Amino acid sequence: MDFMTILSNILGELFAPTTAAYALAAIGLNIHFGMSGLMNMGQAGFMLLGAYGFAITQMNGCDLFTSVLTALVLAAIYGILLGIPTLKLGPDYLAMVTLAAAEIIRIVGRSTSLTWLTGGSAGREGAALQMGGSIGWNVGKLLHLSDYVRRTATISGMAAFFSALFGTPLTAALFAMMVEDVGLTFTSAFMPAFTSALIAYGVSLFFGIAPTNFVLNSIPHLTLETALQTALLGIACAAVTRLFCWTLHTLEHGIPKRIPNPWLRAFAGGAAVVAFSYLFGVGRYNGAGMAVIADAVEQGVALPWDFLCKIFLTALTLAVGFKGGEVVPSFFIGATFGCVAGPLLGLPAGFAGAIGLVCVFCGATNALIPSILLGFELFGGQGLELIALGCGVCYMLSGHYGLYSSQTFVTNKLRPEYASHKWR
Q1: Which secondary structure element, helix H or strand E, spans residue 411, and what is its range?
Q2: HEC letters along 377-390
Q3: How far apart, in whole angstroms, are the C-alpha atoms of residue 261 and residue 276?
Q4: How far is CA 137 from the centre of its chain?
Q5: Cα separation, 241 vs 306, whole angstroms
Q6: What band does 116 get if pLDDT is binned at 50, 70 and 90?
Q7: Are 359 and 347 contacting, i.e. CB atoms less than 8 angstroms apart?
Q8: Is 182 helix (H, G, I), strand (E, B) or coil?
Q9: Is 421 helix (H, G, I), strand (E, B) or coil?
Q10: Which of 52, 54, 95, 249 makes an SS bond possible with 39, Cβ 3.0 to 4.6 Å?
Q11: CB atoms within 10 A of CB 391
């Protein structure tokens, strides 16, 4: 028996990060149970938020002090949100609530916020919009605000998270105001939403998160010919949008019927995602795919089947139980399709990729004005007239479909009439 190897392994585990994490957890439990007598069963939730807050800020290039501060702030916010409603609970009920809260944090961390980091094809904004909206609504409820003011707070929360993610405060404010009811703008919420979006944008810059923007290398002049080419590309993007939404909703309803057990469905879906990734290229269609989007828009480079692969993998990821957003995948789908289809119509590949990105986002979210503003903020206003034209054509022809099942159409997208119904 090699005692030196055994000793080396023991010493390695003694000073390993995992050992330190368990030691810190034990100290925390000793304080809660032994010294204060609190039956807190949610220790893991605090550790998860602190660990991920530290790791993500380090991955984004922040210094050690900022990362530690982020971890402490996240844990403190979680403690306040959990502590306020549980102040008067007895030990047994406190144990149940904290255990449930830690489980919620674990589920959100593993299946929603981190889908885009761990291989699934989904965006980040889905969980962000939900978190922002729910925080705004609950803050309004805590302050006993009226329903209309709470709606403004919900819109402001959504705008803040969208702005922090993409670095597009104006788009974020208008998107949060207009996405729920197509054709209706809750204009009184503009200043609160825009203010919260600007503050969130400033906070994201403070933590070193760069805004999303692209540089267009070849921009055609606005002529009758380029307008016609852009309109044709908008028509094609409308067809792609319909395919994207149809695939999402077909798999979303079809796979749970065929595989009712959620655990088996998640396992089978995960295996399918891994197999698909190895078959078509590991990493290219996983996660958000921002590198592929940048190549399509800035370099004019994309594979002809990129948008089809992204449509299928996104729909599969979300249908089997993993969570995430559909906005960033719509960027990917539109950019790669436009990059491939644009040159066939006579448009530069990169510029056509930019038009496709905004058009598919517009058709999928049914948010026309925010989409045009997105084109302004992402591309610095370059070629905005043609981008707006493509958005308008795609918006009209993409039908009453969309990414959000709760979205209501107050006006018809093609005809000047009211149409109070949800998407089909």
Answers
A1: strand 408-411
A2: HHHCCCCHHHHHHH
A3: 22
A4: 19
A5: 15
A6: very low
A7: no
A8: strand
A9: strand
A10: 95
A11: 28
